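Per your request, structure below.
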């Protein structure tokens, strides 16, 4: 295959992967908002457990059909990943509960520099000046769009730190495990989803009761609420899979930068659905800055020296499975 066509194919797959993540992520936000606001199902951690249970069923069906072959992931690696992932879910829920919207958004923005630090120290990644500046522009732009009131308290700060670091570690680990074990997204999800489903379904109801003072077993499961729960679980399969695909292709930092485009898209979508309420000059300025920063980041990180591994390579094992969508290991990311 000619290099140009190979590069074009990779670019097309990158765009398709990101669009898949955007569509499923925005879709699940809309469905979950309807589920929680309209039908009062406020048990977010239990719902996440149901999401992973549905994802587990999907991977089992694909394995039964022969699309996924058995792969090996050491128990220690699996437990570390699940620990980071569950702390991420719980930490984000607590951070949202204990912090103002402004500080919660700042905490989410800080995942980009934290992910950068992880790549610098663990993967020996080196960023060019332009790449660093483009990330700063993205942070400023999204911050201008989303940050309103900012108030900090001790327990909220602790929750935010746990949420940011655990989420960044979980996203880094997705990319790390796919590279180290040459494992596709379906295969990795087949290992992690069952353990996450089991732990969240066991601990979720207790945690949700602590957050909401409501018991999930006393909820009125009518036809409409069960339909939205089922729809949320169905979309979550795509959301979980697309996250693994994107991080496998883009790395955690690039995924975070591209992820903030979803914030901009949600704001624009809200403008068209709800009118001009909430749209003002500083929001428009923030959108423009963020989009410019994302375009700059894409160009800067793809140039020679923009973002590269200094002298480090991960050990790889023989590739398994017929559904492998990880990008090729490369010194440039």
């Amino acid at each position: 295959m000619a290099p140009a066509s190979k590069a074009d194919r990779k670019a097309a797959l990158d765009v398709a992967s990101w669009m898949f993540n955007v569509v499923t992520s925005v879709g699940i936000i809309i469905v979950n908002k309807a589920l929680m606001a309209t039908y009062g199902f406020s048990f977010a951690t239990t719902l996440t457990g149901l999401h992973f249970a549905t994802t587990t069923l999907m991977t089992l069906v694909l394995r039964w059909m022969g699309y996924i072959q058995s792969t090996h992931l050491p128990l220690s690696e699996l437990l570390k990943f699940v620990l980071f992932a569950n702390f991420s879910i719980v930490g984000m829920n607590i951070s949202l509960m204990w912090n103002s919207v402004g500080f919660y958004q700042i905490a989410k923005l800080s995942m980009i520099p934290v992910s950068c630090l992880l790549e610098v120290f663990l993967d020996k990644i080196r960023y060019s000046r332009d790449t660093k500046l483009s990330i700063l522009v993205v942070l400023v732009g999204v911050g201008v769009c989303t940050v309103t009131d900012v108030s900090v308290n001790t327990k909220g700060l602790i929750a935010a730190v746990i949420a940011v670091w655990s989420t960044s570690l979980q996203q880094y680990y997705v990319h790390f495990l796919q590279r180290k074990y040459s494992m596709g997204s379906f295969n990795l999800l087949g290992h992690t989803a069952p353990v996450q489903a089991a732990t969240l379904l066991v601990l979720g109801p207790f945690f949700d009761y602590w957050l909401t003072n409501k018991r999930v077993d006393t909820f009125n499961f009518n036809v409409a609420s069960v339909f939205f729960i089922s729809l949320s679980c169905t979309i979550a399969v795509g959301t979980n899979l697309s996250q693994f695909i994107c991080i496998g292709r883009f790395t955690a930092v690039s995924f975070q930068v591209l992820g903030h485009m979803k914030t901009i898209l949600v704001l624009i979508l809200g403008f068209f659905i709800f009118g001009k309420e909430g749209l003002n000059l500083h929001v428009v300025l923030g959108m423009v800055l963020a989009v410019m920063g994302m375009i700059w980041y894409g160009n800067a990180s793809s140039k020679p020296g923009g973002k590269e591994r200094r002298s480090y390579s991960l050990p790889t094992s023989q590739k398994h499975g017929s559904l492998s969508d990880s990008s090729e290991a490369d010194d440039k990311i």
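Residues 185 and 241 are 7 Å apart (CA to CA).

Regards,
D.
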